[in-house]
Design goal:
- The complex is a heterodimer.
- Chain A is 6% helix and 49% strand.
- The two termini of chain A are 22 Å apart.
- By secondary structure, chain A is mainly β.
- Chain A has a single domain, classed as Immunoglobulin-like (Sandwich), CATH 2.60.40.
- In chain A, the strands form three sheets. In chain A, strands 1-3-9-6 form a four-stranded antiparallel sheet.
- In chain B, helix 3 links the parallel strand 5 and strand 6.
- Chain B has one domain (35-176): 3-Layer(aba) Sandwich (Glutaredoxin).
- The radius of gyration of chain B is 16 Å and the shape is globular.
- By secondary structure, chain B is an alpha/beta fold.
- Chain B has helices at 12-22, 76-92, 109-118, 130-135, 164-176; strands at 41-42, 47-49, 55-57, 65-71, 97-103, 124-127, 144-148, 153-159.
- Classes of the chains: A mainly beta, B alpha/beta.
- At the A-B interface, strand 12 of A face helix 1 and helix 2 of B.
Chain lengths: 144, 195
Amino acid sequence: MASPWLTLAQNNDVLTIVPPARLSVKRGAPVEVKLQCKLRDGYHTNSHTPSDPYLVPLKLTWDASLLTPAGVTYPKPVMEKYDFNPQPLSVFTGAFEIVSSFSTPAGLPSGPNLLTGKLRYQACTKAMCLPPKTVQVQVPLVVQ
Amino acid sequence: MPVAPRWVVSIPLLAAVALFSCAGQSGSKTQGKVKAISSRKPAPEFALKDPDGKVVRLADYRGKVVLLNFWATWCGPCKIEMPWFIEFERRYKDRGFAVIGVSMDEEGWPVVKPFITNMAVNYRVVQGDDTTAELYGGVEALPTSFLIDREGRIAQTLVGLHGRDEFDHGIQELLDAQSAGAGAVGQPVAHAGAE
């Protein structure tokens, strides 16, 4: 089985996303899912709270699953100044981590399952932009 | 699987764009200046709507030098170029020049109209689509601009943010060139469905 890193890196050009290879979930216990993200040098994405209403925010959403979403925590954005905007922009650069929290119902059936979601982002360099992109994220999990 | 607009077909050129972008705003050397007439290819025809719903065809502009600019509201570098294009439209309009902005915003006019109003855009803007982008080689990144000569041939392609002077020189070179076999300068060819 190909690693999540390899699979996603092949499908995604400037942003590589590494979800956990497999997640062990205990009934009734909270769960954290950490996505490791890395942008290609020279690129930035808008943060989840972009400075300009026309800019596309980075956003992670999870599909309905056995787990109950309890929130997504994004890293602290970097305020960077670019020639194309009079004010600094709220962006992510380099490597960053997105942490999602879930609660697990006590009556969760045991066995393997799959958590799926989408990460939408839009990347630019200081001279050009790529179109907004939505990447599917998959996290295999085992309920114990 | 990643989901992206179909107008993005490949990425290889982007590495080069990213490299030149790190060196400043000037253009990529690989894209060169205005091409010799013998190596220019016909600009693909299109029929796209402007904010009033009027169909705009490239053929309507035969006999003019056209700057065809693919852009989007979410593209910061595109915003740098727009004031230049406004100035070019104003300065060269009477010499047979026109800018056509092709918006690639998926949300369409509800987003684009207020944006171009706020930017005081004085040139024609149309709503782009996948088909048009593919006709023009995929339009891998924004901004991407094509300078089209009076005979409807692509004379220069500029991917990413380029210097204002690079556009200006290209436009002037094409405006100064002798028109061979084209309609009268500044007189667009009449076309059914056009304004």
